[in-house]
Write a structure and sequence with these properties.
This protein is mostly helical. It has 14 helices and no strands. Helix 2 crosses helix 11, helix 4 packs antiparallel against helix 13 and helix 6 runs antiparallel to helix 14. The longest helix is centred in the N-terminal third of the chain and has 28 residues.
Amino acid sequence: MDKSKLVAILEATFAVIAWGASFIATKVALQDISPASVVWLRFSMGVVILGAIVMARGQWALPRPKEIGSYALLGFIGITFHQWLQSTGLVTAQASTTAWIVATTPVFIALLGWLLLRERIGWIGITGIVLAALGVLLVVSKGNLQALSTGNFGTPGDLLILISAPNWAVFSVFSRRVLQARSPTRSMFYVMGFGWLFSSALFFSGPGFADIGRLTLEGWLGVGFLGVFCSGLAYFFWYDALSVLPASRAGAFLYLEPLVAVIVAAWLLDEPVFLASVLGGGVILLGVWLVNRPSALKEIPVARRSS
């Protein structure tokens, strides 16, 4: 195997493992501080790390005036709002349940591609969408589908996490040209930077620095993992791998993310593993795989949820 491809595979694997464990790290940090503080601290670290990588690679350049609006909008959608949804949702949602729900993001990307970009969805793709929806219902209800008929849709956090999936799909569709116009790492640095600025408004108008004093050692480890590994290195490694690997091959690594989350959540958080959740997760992955088949959709971008 070519050395560059081997490095790209290792980079993609690292990114997926980090993102899979990000839900657990968030749960750990939320035991000490508020969601706004978790998001602000996480991306304070991420912006510094990505900025250092951009400068070390000689890719530093001020954004063009016409790019600033795009970066700001994407930063709000993909960083501030998205991470608020996920961090707030994880206050009551299980980490493993969150990972399975988020895995449906490619399905929403396909739907947006069909609605906005006129990308064709065949019967295989439609079947995949239906299966993914059924899988989410199984995961959220833990197999008790009758509870859904009474309006009992899991926890309030499950609903926020479900909203975050199409939100990231919107980010993915609209960021396709922006992130590909120049260096993806450089573009993501500016997107993350604007997102951090908007998150700062939530942080300082809410808990502020007083909240940070409540962090225990475990809380700092959780925040540090999110900032250094998930928001800094993982983004760099992922986009670096995409420059070498075909998009379809890189996308296959994302199927490992919810599996990592389930294993780590059971290990560190003692979250129970329900048979219905495992079966529902399998149905979700099958549905996503069907949607991503070339015969099901003309073109689906390989997008990464900002976990």
